[in-house]
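Hey L., structure's done. Input below.
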Amino acid sequence: MIVQVDLRPRPPVVALEEPDDTGHFHVVVIGGDDRALVYGALVDAAAGRLDGDDAWITLDAVRRWAAGRVGPTWDDDLARMVEYARTKGWVDDSAYSVRAHVEWPA
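Output:
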């Protein structure tokens, strides 16, 4: 799954790409490298927050974006992804979110 933050439109748009791919999870920023805009876009989308070179993405947002776009095993696949992330220390249970690396434009 890719959380895409597109800074080109105003306001910026946050969307989930490749929702069926629970084997990968990261954030891709398009249209600039303004960290304040990315932070604001994630907060405004009720998606999470920027934290250095990573982002904390809420699982509620992931579920909301994936609704109606994924297969019947997706909930189990997502649970496995979260459990793997937990073993790496990439889950914040207090905010129900998962850490994702952010890829910035070159």
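The longest strand covers residues 97-103. The chain has one domain: 2-103.

-- N.
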